[in-house]
Structures are given as structure tokens and as C-alpha cells.
Design goal:
Layout: E1 3-9, H1 12-25, E2 30-36, H2 39-45, H3 49-66, E3 70-76, H4 86-103, E4 108-114, E5 120-123
Parallel strand pairs: 1-2, 1-3, 3-4
Antiparallel strand pairs: 4-5
């Protein structure tokens, strides 16, 4: 069994597209899902340390117990938790990636954008 990890919005519309994308991208059987409303903004701003640490605790479980081979942070169109533009959310997602890489430099950490058609694309760092 192989795993990767997603830090994704709680919005149900983005779950399956992101899971399917990551199964192909990381060539894994399963995707551990960590969900929050607007997690890219939460990790970029790091204002609520309790939520940030909760996310990192869940990443640790995925990495340590499931052997996660990679981590993805996703932002999406029409996000209620982060109602910013695509451009602003891209900045948030890239900042979140950099923040996660400080703790998980040995893993590949990628950013994703889910558009208005629920199509997933990878962001460039």
C-alpha cells in the first residue's frame, strides 16, 4: 500500500478531483486527506497556531504511519474559506508549500489549483 497526503479544502466538490490527480501524480493507492476551509491561506498566514499545529500533527501521522511519499496543498475556485482570486490563492499556496518544506524538506511538496470546471493543475514554485 502506498500513500501521499493532501491538505485540501473541506469543500466536497474538490475532494475527488484532487484525490484522482494525486493517485496518478505520486503513483499511490491512497491519499490521506487533511481538510480545513481555505487551508492554503491558513498555512500561508500562520495566524491560528492551533490549526496550523493540528495540520502538522496530521501530516506527521500520514508520513510516519503511512509512509506518505509526497504532500500537496490545494486551492480552488469559489472557495468560501479563502475567497481570494486565483492569483492571490496561488501566492497563498506557494507560501504554504515553502512553510511545509521547512519541516518536510525530504518529501516532495506540490501546490494544486482546482478551477471552475473542477480540473486540477499543478502550480510552479
Amino acid at each position: 500500500m502506498s500513500f501521499c497526503t493532501t491538505i485540501n479544502c473541506m469543500d466536497g466538490r474538490v475532494q475527488l478531483p484532487v484525490i484522482k490527480y494525486l493517485q496518478e501524480r505520486f503513483n499511490v493507492d491512497y491519499v490521506d486527506s487533511i481538510t480545513e476551509p481555505g487551508p492554503n491561506l491558513i498555512l500561508a498566514q500562520q495566524k491560528n497556531i492551533d490549526i496550523v499545529e493540528s495540520i502538522f500533527n496530521r501530516i506527521k501521522i500520514s508520513v510516519d504511519h503511512h509512509g506518505s511519499v509526497g504532500i500537496a496543498v490545494a486551492g480552488h475556485y469559489s472557495c468560501a474559506g479563502n475567497p481570494a482570486t486565483k492569483e492571490e490563492q496561488t501566492v497563498h499556496t506557494l507560501d504554504a508549500i515553502r512553510y511545509i518544506k521547512r519541516r518536510y524538506s525530504d518529501l516532495e511538496v506540490i501546490g494544486l489549483w482546482v478551477d471552475e470546471n473542477w480540473k486540477v493543475s499543478e502550480l510552479s514554485l
